[in-house]
Design brief:
By secondary structure, this protein is an alpha+beta fold. The chain has one domain (3-195). Helix content is 29%, strand content 18%. It has helices at residues 3-9, 32-41, 65-68, 123-132, 134-138, 140-150, 181-195, and strands at residues 45-47, 52-54, 85-90, 96-100, 103-110, 115-120, 158-161, 176-179. The strands form 2 sheets. It has a 6-stranded antiparallel beta sheet with strand order 1-2-3-4-5-6. The N and C termini lie far apart (44 Å).
Amino acid sequence: MTNVETLLSIASEPLAGQPAAMPELLRPYLLGDELFRMLREKNGFYAFESALHVFPFTGDSKTGLEAWNAGPLWKDAYEGLAEGLLFFAEDILQDQFCLSLRNDGVLRFHSETGQTELHSNSIEAWAGVILSDYRHETGWPFVHEWQAKNGILARGKRLMPKTPFFLGGEYHIENLWAGNPLDGMRLKADLAMQTRRLPEGARVKLNISPKPKQ
């Protein structure tokens, strides 16, 4: 079995029906064909106790691939840092996996800072890295421990830090709560924009204000 086939074999049931044709959204990306082949086999899924969430093709949900990548939803709040990126999956703490118009690999997008790094050079390689180190790559230990204490995580929810990790928040379930993924990304974008130009070690005072209704 390939890495993708192995990942699909241990994942949940598909989150949406099989797509009939490759969406135009994917065509500009060098790995768009490979991503489509995976989603044609299983159109969106959860794996590792929902630690890994792969978005489906559907226009019916704010967490469908098309809607999730619409700029006004949350991407624009990163003020250019998310431009040219196609987000197709996320870990339990909302770091995103994405394709880029400027890069032929899979990138990891750190949601608290808006920084990206090369993760793997193909969807097949991405699946292989996930399988080989799912504890680190998906944040599985956090959701496993959180669910053991609090019960099953509701579908669609993600775990979010009470104190941001990059500001010293602990990687511990006492610092985590289950929240709405859209609200989570908007909040993380707000934090990233307020701190992006600060030198390392700077004292931080964050301003949290209500977001305008979309």
